[in-house]
Amino acid sequence: MSTHTLVRVIVPGPFDEPFDYLVEGDRPPPGARVRVPFGRGHRVGVVLAWPETAAVDPARLRPITASLDREAILPPDLLALLTWSAGYYHYPLGEVLTALLPAPLRQGRSAVAEPTEHWRITAAGEAALAAGLRGQPARQRLLAAFADAPAGLDRTQLRGISPNYRQPLHALLARDWVEPVDPPTAATAAPITSPPELGAEQAAATQAIAAAADRFQPFLLQGITGSGKTEVYLGAIAACRARGRQALVLVPEIGLTPQLIQRFEARLGGSVAVLHSGLTDRDRLTAWRRAACSEAAVIVGTRSAVFAPLARPGLIIVDEEHDASLKQQDGYRYHARDLAVRRAQQLDIPVVLGSATPSLESLANVERAAYQRLRLDRRAGGATPPALELVDIRRRRLAEGLSAPLREAMQQHLEAGEQVLVFLNRRGWAPTLICDDCAHVANCQRCDARMTVHARDNRLRCHHCGAERAQPTVCPECGSTALVQLGAGTERVEAALQASFPDYPTVRIDRDSTRRRGTLDAGLERIRSGAARILLGTQMLAKGHDFPGVTLVGILDADRGLFGADFRAPEQLAQTILQVAGRAGRAERPGRVLIQSRHPEHPLLQSLIHAGYDAVAAQLLAERRSAGLPPASRMALVRAEAPAAAPPLELLRSAREHLGERRIRDLEFHGPAPAPMERLAGRYRAQLGLLAPRRAPLHRALHELRAWLASSRQARQVRWSIDVDPVEIL
After folding, report:
1. Which CA distances in Å does 436 have to 167, 397, 483?
2. Could you tell me if 238 and 339 lie in one domain?
3. Do 667 and 560 share a structural domain?
4. pTM over cut 0.90
């Protein structure tokens, strides 16, 4: 057989290796899609390479059915990232391809970009806007956005303004208030706003990033909240675009993308594509195509956007690099931050990791000179950092979680015309329903967890598996009606705030209050407009939002992370406190932060208040080194689960024995043991921790283990997974 007739193809699915096929005529290049016979049907795969010889008996090879792309749709760097990450995370190569390609491309849809739909305001639309559209706020808002964008807007930009843009857009088109136009190119798109004058620290950071334009250089941009990290991003992106290159920007949450898109569009003049899991398949494919053909100069997205194709890559930015949301927690358990660094290395371009509270992993990389740290220690515009104060709530009566000092401070700031943010990372009405007579607790029947009371719809819900049932009126154990709701969630605190401060509108931002599409945007708009004076929320309010009117932040339960089962809990607590605190005092008005605690003397809280995050991080890094925990070591968790408790533990004991027989040097075992929450969604979970001082012994062990698990009869009765570099152990 002549070598020119072979192609090696990655096929989506649970396959560790590619498959060889025959091809007649011109061979499709690596990175192009082909339709191939597979089993009794056909699948769409991607050509990985042109092998010299077949990996199996040539007589068994079948020809491809069709070649779908004349040119590669996956550039060489993405193919390299695909194969490297499959090995690093010990996950099937075919499943990694599934995560990388949009569903329409896996189904054989064209990868060629379709013409972009673009619209701009007409003279009639400007007249209608000037006259005002009474009773039509959605159309008014959209028309105002068109008026602010002379070059026009496309669907991606409109979605950033309002997820529910379609109906108002159709109404504006029907009245000839907007009209379709050709979209501006990346080179001709004009900015709407001019950049502000950068401070000395911002200018130095921007120049350092621009100076590394043609080489791999990881930067840790450590800037206190409000120091203007986004302006540094924009300056670096502008320099990247001036060289005709593309920039990729990763953010941890979908909720952060709309405001970031608006800011980028205003400064960069268009050509921004958005990629995240909330998009429809069609919209995701459109953004993917725009990135692949370089129509989009900037691609902004959540963790999966790390796989966006870049025709002319020049810069990668990861905002809030410490955020655990950048780590995929099931299936293909990749970390987008780490893949961004790896991809930048493959492309030989700079990568910027930004955070006010960097991860210990990134700080350790700074210590060993793998990353260059750029610091922003001053708030933009001359604003001063907020003052942090501990409120000792021992022996104090709380009104639904609110102490008297906090309520008094709220009253003062509200009367001064300012906004107040109250943070509680626990949604629902109350976390526990207990019988006052027999002490029976309403627990989840499928998890080792208590049911949360949701009073507004009179339900009990498990926040771990999603199970729910009606709230009982009598105790199921003793029949007593003395049922007591202990603790406070955001629902209960909201009711208390409305009762205590009836003259000041409250807006609650959590997963429950923002389930309906558009409610998050509406809530954030009420905050920015000043219509809402009291802001109440969970982590959703803590990340990346700029609320200039907020001058007081109250943190209701700062103790939850002090004694957590996860060794990362203290780090995450310090990061959360400072991220929430950073919402206060962003403008010319000073900020104040009250942290309620029953352990105000705790060393972590004292260090955070008096010495700052750097001191806390240094202390935690020293503790991790003493304990031999990451980032001082490399870690993986092997997880197993089954309907009964015994099989997962038995499998992991056998796995440990198997690895013990291999006598891998420097490998340390932790467990196996039941997971901290052993029963979740009706399944019992156990885990085995593997630690090593270096990557090599750990990955050798995981390679051996995965091969053993794949062939073990015992493993067929248990669902198992491998998590490399886990960010949580619960």
Report:
1. 53, 20, 6
2. yes
3. no
4. no
